[in-house]
Design brief:
Layout (H helix, E strand, L loop, with lengths): L2 H8 L5 E3 L4 H4 L7 E3 L4 H13 L3 H16 L2 H16 L1
Parallel strand pairs: 1-2
Helix pairs in contact: 1-4
Length: 91
């Protein structure tokens, strides 16, 4: 989990990131942000232009992103998940 991505989503900022490590777990491509291949600058530029040229996208992605973070990355939820993992490992 990337804290910067979660914070950006929680505050309603548009997110464009690469398909690297755990980042695709936080971004639902085309719903709360965009995923691009690493080093694909053309694709990155296209996604930036998509945000610029589609004024309705930002609020839509903002709302979905904020809800996604609250439902999946809230600290209480993460702690509960971690406790469940420990319980399973100990039993």
């Amino acid at each position: 989990m990337n804290t910067v991505i979660s914070q950006a989503l929680a505050t309603g900022l548009p997110v464009i990131t690469t398909r690297h490590s755990g980042l695709p777990d936080q971004i639902i491509d085309g719903k709360n942000g965009f995923l691009v291949d690493e080093n694909n600058y053309k694709e990155l530029a296209e996604k930036i232009l998509t945000y610029i040229n589609s004024s309705d996208l930002w609020p839509e992605f903002s709302n979905f992103g904020r809800d996604h973070v609250l439902k999946n990355y809230d600290s209480n939820i993460l702690i509960d998940r971690q406790v469940e993992i420990y319980k399973k490992l100990l039993n």
